[in-house]
Amino acid sequence: MKRTVYLLIAAMVCCGALCIGQEHHHDMGESTGTVSFAVSCTPAAKEAFIRGLVLLHSFEYEESGKEFQSAAKSDPQCAMADWGEAMSLYHQLWEQPSKENLKRGAELLAKARALQAPTARERDYIAALAVFYADTDKLDHGQRAKAYATAMQGVYERNPKDTEAAVFYALALLASSSNGDLNLTNAKAAVAILTKLFDEQPTHPGIAHYIIHSCDNPSMANLALPAALKYAAIAPTSPHAVHMPSHIFARLGLWQEDIRSNLAALHAADEMAAMHFHVLHHKVHSMDFLEYAYLQIGDDASAKAEVDKMDEMLMQDADPEFRDYFEIRRTRFPAVYAIERRQWREALALQPNREAAPYAQLLTYWARAIAAGHLHDAAAGQDAMKHFDELLEATRRGPKPYIADGFKWDRDIVRAWTDHAAGKSDEGLQLLRNVADEQDKLGKGETDLPAREMLADMLLDLKRGPEALAEYEVALRTDPNRFDGLYGAAQAAEQTKEKEKAYAFYAQLVKNCDGSHSDRPELEKAKTLLAAK
What we know:
mainly alpha; Serine Threonine Protein Phosphatase 5, Tetratricopeptide repeat; globular
């Protein structure tokens, strides 16, 4: 489940009126970025259209849709306003559109086509998006996403000087990526387009934003660091823009930068809440990153504060479209808090919220299975596996069966630790290795626990020190500076009598946790050993 969410400030400065058909350049300064897009509409409609476009590029779909509606109301003949509203209903890197939104999108595109926009370029954009909203009874979401990407490739190739065509094509590539593509074909193609554009237009919000999404994996994260550092400065009043760099900071193990980014995003969200915008999804997303980052520097008290804040939030305050995400995170926060602190009894005692959706409840059993494996409790492992599978099947039978696909790795991890608890460690190791090999290339969720580190944990538990150390070292390259990864590597190095390596891992752990007021016993051990060196 590694998709994200969004917001740009709606109180934007309007620029002067331009003639119909003339290129509309909207410079919003350092607070919102710069976007250019030619539309054949009245000056007032153009203003609203560009505001909607800027919001769209930072995934503020609700406010974006309102701006496009405003453009259509101002100029009923503005076909691109209807295109824009239909775009705001297609959340390309989030959830699949509801049946209602698919129906509404198709109606908007039919209206836009009937208006016969005066330029071939505008008609091209409209026709491309219509492909996504067509044949919903015959083609599934993935097929229509790929068809739209192909259509946008045509728009891009027919309009080589149109920045927006390139940007929307790159986004369509990301949205139509195959989950199992270990070569990251679409991500690499997208970032090749976007990097060139970033050099030319460093204040365009969508370019910086989509570079980060393109590179949100272990092998490419370094490439996005310039865009990550820039995006928050392009739109400092946007919670999502301020948060988004932390995807790269988390990939690179830059925990203090990660924390500062998400604290600033929460502040921006509070500012937007005061303007009566829906921001709970922004807050939960940033809190997820904060909990994870605090745990990596041993600041358990701050991590627990995020868990408690999440527990106090009410489901009815979440927008309906984000309730899946809300429910999953509400269950996930305490599970991660227990597992990352290696509190196996605490994890084993976690109870699911029986009123939550099955896909949220199963995360409790994910945590229980990992704990059971570490405790060598075969009965608890089997119980966790049984409940996990029942809830996964209930998800497949539910109204959003595609959510079950996002738990493939989790299911293998549950099976692996259940096997280990039952004494079938070879089977468990192979399952973890398979998941780890995929994660190393595709990238796990930014705040997920790496399977490679779990593989090393299992090997260490089996007293296979040299193998464990080798796996920890790989894990620390793909997920650097993780607390448990560094501590585990140090333990494995001690087990294999490699004292200098152990000291180096302990030293890095102490450095990462400097100033965090941590009371983790692992950190105390590291400090004691280093002091005695």
